[in-house]
Amino acid sequence: MAKSYGLGIDLGGTKILAGVTDLSTGKVLGSAKKRTNSAEGAKELLGRLGDVATDAIADAKLPKGTFVTSAGVLAPGQVDPERGVLLTAPNLSGLGNLPIAESLEDRLDLPVRLGNDVQGAALGELRFGAGKGVDRLVCVFVGTGVGGAIIRGGELDRGPSATAGEIGHLVVFAGGRFCGCGGRGHLEAYASRTAITRVLLEELRRGRPSVLRDLLGAAGIDENAPGGMAIRSGLLAKAVAQNDELVLETLQEAGRYLGLALASAINFYNPERIVLGGGVVEAVPLLLEIAAPIAKREALAVPGALVEIVPSKLGDNAGVVGAALLGAQSVQVAGLR
Ligand SMILES: [Zn+2]
After folding, report:
1. Extents of the domains making up the chain
2. Which of 114, 123, 134, 149 has the fewest CB within 10 Å, making it most exposed?
């Protein structure tokens, strides 16, 4: 059988990652990366997406006679998958109504499909990663926010308003901290990188000793991170490696709330497996080690004993591979017509 290749683009709040994926194995053959630069306008962003896409295709150096036949894009926000338009993206300095699919189709001469970032990454884990072959799966990604997706019967369950699985907005503390969405006491306000950063910076301001003081310097803080400035995940990992009391205590708290939210998800949905990924979990596996036993302990005994809680396998590539899979779905659909 001829190999088929799909282009996947992961449009994040801080970077755009593109890769050519072998659709039968999930292997990424060539990739390219650019900063998103949230200050720029819609036209520049669309142009930059096209540049990253063509760079990735060139980098893949596909064997003669083989081509990329479809493309998919994952975006951090609410999308209209039918029209391929990114409706709202609070993490892209409020850019909205971006005709991403149409713009890329013109540039690449390929069918392009647009989807939500977390749901796409879940598709990647389901097909080639830690969720392979699982019927009832929940994927949770901890990064600048906390995202989640539900798989049922081997398919994404998006729900009628495409918001099913939004675990970041489960209430974990009645009347607690304000969340980016405007609600109160949501998981994202306790366990996201933005939330962890906020606590750490407040404690530093109060004069708590921490190796972060030396580590942070000028490069340690991402000023343009979506949702406000954020301490880089790699830096948190360094502080953990040095047994920094403040960072360990803050992660313990974040992990505890994450575990409690997972326990609620386990009771409510009875998943066979939960895949935990995202930038913070990738850099700091300790977060999973804290959250998983709490989730199993706080859940009802029977579903708590059954569920497996595992780290994501595709790591940084989950978005790119998921985007490529999403793009290939459009070709299959078109082929059926
Ligand atoms: Zn919220």
Report:
1. 5-122+317-336, 134-311
2. 134
